[in-house]
Amino acid sequence: MNTFNFNAPFSSDALHLLQLFKNEGYQIFLVGGCVRDAILGNVIHDYDLCTDALPKQMIALANKYNIQSIPTGIAHGTITWMYHNQPYEITTFRSDHEYKDFRRPEHVSFSNNFADDVARRDFTMNALGYDGAHIVDYVGGMHDIKHKQIRTVGNPSLRFQEDALRILRALRFQATLAFSIENETFLAIQKYAYLLQHISKERLQVEFVKILQSKQVDTLRILRNANVLDTLFPVFKETYDVVQHNTYHIYDVFEHMNSVINASIGYPLDIRLALFFHDIKKKACKQVDANGITHFKGHAALSATYAKKILKEYRFSKACYQHVYQLIYYHDRYVTNGIDDIRQFMYELHGNYVLAHEILTIQKLDNMGKSKTTQIKKNVTIDEVIKKLHIMQEAKEVFSIKELAVNGEDIKKLGYQHKEIGNVLNYLVKYVVHHQEKNNKKDLLEVAGGLKDEISNSK
Fold it and tell me: Would residue 153 count as lying in a domain?
């Protein structure tokens, strides 16, 4: 065991709880991520503690000091104290036994020795304790933090077979902390990545989102090299080594997608999710013409459908997967800078300017994974489209029925009935899209009046 003096930036409440347990004769340590983040100088978001006090003793102690206690994991020795509206998870020192579901121990043994508790933890950087004055280190965690290295506590093969989620957590820490993974640990990740299929989709989603929201470069490559990409999203196998012989592309499908994810670092989650999956079904749509040029017609719609299925499977919200579906579906719908084409684009989007700008953002980022000539040419056009969209939005151009200068009652007075009314209104919207100046009651009623024969014949 090594100890290090440390002037910890912990909250006064956290330090007060340490002292409260000590005053009662218990051992107590701040542990896990809060200690690691304190050493790194990162923001501390939550506090975990461990102690030799048993759960019933923790509850009694909370009652003595009028602190709310919640038995959040009492079978595994965890009691949550609510102190000044901040949760503190406090767990009895323990050893874990017989992991049967690749996630949680079948049973635990409580201990009065902090070293036993350290031995069950995932990574050395998360196995440090702070006793109020010193960092207590049994496993070389301080060394690994100093060298920005992720290493399991003990045998990595055993750690990952006990709890397979640790595999994705290692990759998440690599992404969010900009650490490297120690070689034996990484080899075990590659070997046991398949065990992630036993973990709930909700837990996998949480870790995956944190990886995707990080500033890590080459995320797709890293996940692929770790054998994790194929386990989480087997469809990506269809993107490997799919050559794109045309004037736009300089990479195969997978490398193109990796470069696009790099270009999107820092963008909102839905944008990054859309780009993560935007070309996953290109291979299924691949065609080669007589000149040897490859085309992928229909890949946007097919990729959008498949991405939506994946996001639903991983328990993303309905709003999220529907939004991502739209972004992918339209990512290959390039618009010229001609006003009629831009208006038609806005009509297809039902006048949703926010969605239009997001799609154009997706397209600009998608172009960053193509040839330099394509990047420049296409993105100049997109910038021109964006300027015209601002002008159209300020002019309050019309792209939906609710924005027309007439309504159903106006059309009914012309003698139309039932479904005819809706048909006329739909026609008027299409008309106004390309004749914005005609969106007034007089002109629209005149146009509507002239549709009677066409509407009648359509029956």
Answer: no
Chain segment 380-426, per-residue pLDDT in tens = 999 999 999 999 999 999 999 999 999 999 999 998 888 999 999 99
Of 89, 95, 98, 10, the closest CA to residue 55 belongs to 89
With respect to residue 152, please indicate whether it lies within any of the assigned structural domains.
Answer: no
Q: Which one, of 343, 364, 367, 346, lies nearest residue 355 by Cα?
A: 346
Q: Is residue 106 domain-shared with residue 24, that is, in the same domain?
A: yes
The domain boundary, picked from 232, 263, 291, lies at 232
Question: Which of these three, 212, 232, 252, is where a domain ends?
Answer: 232
| Regions of the chain with pLDDT less than 50 | none
β-bridge partners, 70: 80
Give the domain extent around 431: 401-458
Tokens for 203, please give them: 């837990």
Write the CA distances from 269 to 266, 275, 287, integer angstroms: 9, 10, 32
Task: Supply angle C-alpha 400, 405, 409, rounded to 5.
Answer: 95
Please state the domain count of the chain. 4
Place of tokens 């300089």: 250
Query: Cβ distance 62 to 88 under 8 Å?
Result: no
Residue 128 lies in a domain: yes
Q: What is the pLDDT of residue 154?
A: 94
